[in-house]
Structures are given as C-alpha cells and as structure tokens.
Amino acid sequence: MSGPLIVQGDMTLLLEVGHPDFETARDEINAFSEIVKSPEYMHTYRMTPLSLWNAASAGISADGALGALEAHAKHAVPENVKTRVRQIIERYGSVEIDKDDEGLFLTAKDEFTMALINADEKASSYFLSPPEGLKVRIDGHYRGHLKQALMDLQLPAQDHAGFGEAAPLTIGLRESCASSGSPFSLRGYQQEAVDLFYASGKAHGGHGVIVLPCGAGKTIVGMGAMEKVSAETLVLTTSITAVRQWIAELLDKTSLTEDLIGEYSGEIKQIRPVTISTYQILSHRNAQGDNAHFSLFDERNWGLIIYDEVHMLPAPVFRMTAELQSKRRLGLTATLVREDDRQSDVFALIGPKRCEVPWKSLEEKGFIAKAKCSEIRIPLPVDMKMAYATSDKKDKFRIASENPDKMHVIKLLLEKHKDGNILIIGQYISQLKAIAAELEAPIITGSLANKKRELLYSSFKRGDTPVLVVSKVANFAIDLPDANVAIEVSGTFGSRQEEAQRLGRILRPKEGDNEAHFYALVTKDSREEDFAGNRQLFLIEQGYPYEILEVADISV
Length: 556
Fold this sequence. Notes:
Layout: E1 5-7, E2 12-16, H1 22-29, E3 34-37, E4 42-46, H2 49-57, H3 62-72, H4 79-91, E5 95-100, E6 103-108, H5 111-119, H6 121-124, E7 135-137, H7 143-152, E8 157-159, H8 188-198, E9 207-211, H9 218-229, E10 233-237, H10 240-253, E11 261-264, E12 274-278, H11 279-283, H12 296-299, E13 304-308, H13 315-321, E14 328-333, H14 343-350, E15 353-356, H15 359-364, E16 370-378, H16 385-389, H17 393-401, H18 406-416, E17 422-425, H19 429-439, E18 443-444, H20 450-462, E19 467-470, E20 485-488, H21 496-504, E21 515-523, H22 527-541, E22 546-550
Parallel strand pairs: 5-8, 9-14, 9-15, 10-12, 10-13, 11-12, 13-14, 16-21, 16-22, 17-19, 17-20, 18-19, 20-21
Antiparallel strand pairs: 1-2, 2-4, 3-4, 5-6, 6-7
Helix pairs in contact: 2-4, 3-4, 7-14, 8-9, 21-22
C-alpha cells in the first residue's frame, strides 16, 4: 500500500497533499467526508453520520465508501472504521415513512429500532397509537417534527409518504432565450440533477438538495424542477436583488408570463401562481412578535417550494418547513456547510443531498471559470502593533482586517488586472468607504436603495464600471457574469459559506482564457490569519488551487 491516505480509528482521514494521487483521492473521499483543516502538507477530513447519510442518499454504498478508502490508503483501514461506516450507512433506510388510505405510518427495520423510537419521549409523542410490531401510525401534521426527532436518534428516515394535491401550472422551458434569441437547454449535469430530484414523480423523490458549484446554474436547475412538477411554485431566496434576478430568468427562459409571476418582498406584495420571496420578509416579526408573513405558505396550494441558497435558511423558516412536508421541496446551494451547524435540519426537513457535481469536472468542460485563489499576507504597520497587542480578541480581528496597508496591495492588483472587471468585497463599511473614496469607485452597501444597486450592477455587467466596491450584501445570489477578479479585504471571521459565495461571484464562464482570480488580503501573524485558515477550507475541499503570497510576490 502506498496511497496518500491515512485512515484513523476515530473516523478521521489524513490526506497527503504532495502525493501524485492526491487529487483523485480527494475527489473520492469528498463524497462521504467533511474537511476539518488544511495545513500545507496534510489535509484532515472526518467521516460523520451526516456525511455518510448524504452519501448514501446519493447512491454511495458502504462497499463504495470503503472501497475508496482501501484504494487510496497507505496502511490497512482499521476494522472498527469498516464496521462503523457500515453501521452508519445501513441506518439510512432503517426507518421509513409511508402512506396508505388510513394516513401516514412509520415502519422500522427491526424490533430494536422500533423500541428505541418508542422509548424516546419526543419521537413517540407523534404516534397516534401504540406500535403494532414494526409499524406505527403517526400524526401527518407533525411529519417534519418526527423526522427531526429521528435525526436526534441517528435514525434518518426515508420518506415515501409522497405529497398532497397541488394547483397545477404548465411551465415549459424555452428553446431560445427571450432576451437574446440564443439557444437554450439544460446542460447534461443540470438535467441529471433535475431527474435525480424529481425521480420520475415517485414518492421517494421530490424532496432534497442539489449541490452545485457557484456559477454552475442552480437557478436553471430550479426552473427544470418547476417544469417537471408543473405546479404553482414558491421560491425563497436571499434578497430583493435575487428575487428580481429569478423573475428575469423565468421570463427569459420559461413559458411563464409576467402576470403569472409575483414578487413578495418588503417593497411589493404580489401573490401569483409563481411567487418569489425573501427569507428576510418571512422572518420579519410584527409588534406582537409574530411572523406576520408566514401566511404566504398558505396563500396558494403550492406544489413546489424552492429554497435558494438553502444553507442560509433562517430558524423561523426551518420551523415552518417542518409543517410543509406534503409539499415538494428543493434546496439549492454551493455548500452544505452552515455556520449554525444545522445541516441535519436541512437533511430532515428539506431532504437529503440528491446530487453534487464536482467543481473540477465542470471546469474541465468550460462550464465554469478556472479559478486561481491566493492569500496575500500583509504586515501590520509598526505604529499599529501596540494597539493591536493591547486589544481584546474581537478588536484584534477588526484592527487586522482594516490594516491600512491593504490599500497599497489593492492598487497593485488593480494594475495587474487593469483590463479586468473587479469586485472589492469586505465586511466593514468604514473600510469599504475609504477604499471607494481612494479609488473613486462606486460602492454598494445595505443602505443603498435597491434601484440604485440595480443600476450599479447593470453598469458593472456592461463594463461601464470596471471596479465595484461591495459589502456583504453582494455575497448571495447576485448574477455578475463578467466579474473575473475578486479582492476580499475583510471577512466574517471564519465563515466558509461566505468564502464560497464570494468566490461564486467570479466563476461564471468567461470568453478567452476562461480564468478568474480570487485574492484574500490578510494581515500577517494576526487573528485575521487564524480565521482565514478556516475560510480556506471550502476552497480546498472543492479542489481549488490555493497559494500563499507575500506582498513582494505580486508581479505587475
């Protein structure tokens, strides 16, 4: 055995970066494990129940996962790991939820599993009667709550109960875009994702998550699912800008007309057969503390609910989703990582991962840009070191993030990419305003009116505005197809999901060399450098090349 992988008894995997088979091994173990840390020479992954259940839902068997480990292992795979992987994967499907003429019922694979569920106070509270053998009647109104309780018992349920009758709506996909006349059709991997989600309309399909790299066309997968379901649809996304981009895409690429599509936001309250809304408006509480807009879920007989950027789903919408299990549910995301660690709720309430398309395969086919990721480490000015040393941890991070010497590096990068379309992205508004003023560049923050934001985004897309400074409002679901350089000047501590979304702003395919550049400016030997290491994890687990540079390494 001479592979790059060391499989440890605690379910962690050590992957040797310099080994010739590193990339192949990485791509295979990514399907059933999660990256934990990524120092220069050895990356650490961990197999968890959730990572293995998501793999099982995507069709990876215990033999398939263990075969990948054994194929790339440097030493023998520990026997306890083999046993544990089999036990965890076999738990997926040990509990099933089904429906007959009398209603919903749960079936366990054996007496032990049923006894375990029946003994749990929370899970058994959703039973309508005592179990009869391996079967028990359950309260259909609490189907999602039961699935959450089962996840707490590490018993992920396969839900075959199907969906209620929905208001029909014929939705066709155009053969050419309405705006440009250019040919339009789903790419092969997009069609495969739709088919895996829909599962020919069978009860075991119609709920789940599609994971695609940023720029790979998640919105188009959503439209493909809408065509398959052909029912009234509610789409939830992250901002008014994203709402309007969804509307524009639907009008451009489907048979839907303006009178069939509604915007439900802080500015407009339209409820139509296809309605696009935001997580923010649904999470808004009135003076009495109630979620005043939750009634949207009941305003029409929705046949499909699409959760765009599902990793951003807020807690109040999770709670409502637990009661929407009779609706088809599709989650779209570039990463299943959630900063609140509620990935198990996504699994239980939206559904398991149905499809994940590796970044590398899409890059090789030219469907997304080739991304080069660099971290540039910048010393803290001498006159700021004492203030940094005597500050608390939170202030240390901010001082490092707002290092004024980053301005010099920004100018070097602008010169290096003087013909590029460049986004400068950051966390702190005062820092961004100073950068925008110095560069005489426009800036978009949360306080800017939506109409003005849209004008600036349009100007950037046309190439009239080559440099745009943006706050975190541009992290999510913003379509800027011509951006080919992103300069991150500050971030949200160690947020991997934020790194994913910021990189996504530049990954749409480009004319010419089809290359994109992502730079993270980080203060050397600081709290910011520590957190930057965690943000790198998303980039590395996706296989993006990532280099560490000093200021002197930047060649103009």
